[in-house]
Amino acid sequence: MGNSAMNSAPGGHGRSWDAAAMAEILLDCARRALAHRAASSWTLKSDGSLVTEVDRDIEALLSAALPGPGEYFIGEETIAQRGADYAREALRGSCWVVDPIDGTSSFAHGFPLWGISIGHMVGGVLRHGAVMVPECGDILVSEGEGVVHYRLAGLSAPLTAATRRELAPAAGAWQAGGVLMLGQRFCKSGQLRMPNPVVASGSAVEALAAVLTGQAQAYVGHMKLWDIAGLLPMMARLGIVGRLADGGQISCEVTNGAFVLDMNSAACWALRDNCVICADAWQPVVSSAVTWRAEG
Question: Residues that bind Mg(2+), according to the entry (predicted)?
């Protein structure tokens, strides 16, 4: 991974969020992941999900690069080893929350639907976020009160060669021909009663990036904190709302009850229920058309 991007990573108390630096970090991670994918094997974790050497490699690099003095780090592959006391302190302090490869099953089997997510949280509230969908060339990053979308023609190109635009909040009427993104859990245990075309995705980062850019209208699924930590600050800036099946809201305030934060629970860090994510005005349209089958 290029030293220039990693050394410029914002972190630590008093340092500001640098959107361009975060985009460079994501681009470096994406290049490294793709360069090592062919030689990387996968194994199954205890929850049945896949993990590769690349997941661990990218997480180790981000763990070394992002946290400044006194900061914490929550990563999908390592938080369980850090212990409950560390996790509780992380929710109270300044903390980076990352998913090195979101959509590992797609990544490991050569599909393009995967992403990388970085979120920065202070006092349990996510302030900034950045994600990349490498094989689409898309980088989304919060900047000030807005969201910037970089689009690269190829990963060998420098970030300066990318097109750059500021995203606008979702607007307009619901379109019957607009795409809905469906998570794996919904595909296996849900029913959708509406005419819209759908795309099944194994990556919340990839699916929600499509929602934020307006390529898709909504996402239906379930996820853990690190899957969405980089996205929630951008969702808030763009008027994209996440609601649980019981009506509860998913917000940047991680401790508001949407996530299971019982460190002794097997469901720790997961949303406590399934969700619909879209513009707030469209929530009734999608939620009324969704049915979840009881698990077990």
Answer: 76, 99, 101-102, 227
Instruction: Extract the annotated binding site.
Output: 76, 99, 101-102, 227
**The CATH fold of domain 3-166:** Fructose-1,6-Bisphosphatase; Chain A, domain 1 (3.30.540)
pTM over 0.85: yes
Task: Identify the pLDDT of residue 9.
Answer: 42
CATH 3.30.565.10 assigned to domain 180-292? The reply is no
User: In this predicted structure, what is the pLDDT of residue 48?
Assistant: 67
Residues at the binding site for Mg(2+) are 76, 99, 101-102, 227
CB atoms within 10 A of CB 3: 9
225: its two tokens: 């904190």
| pLDDT for residue 215 is more than 80 | yes
- Print burial letters for 87-122: b (CB count within 10 Å at least 16), e (below 16): beebbeebbbbbbbbbbbbbbbeeeebbbbbbbbbe
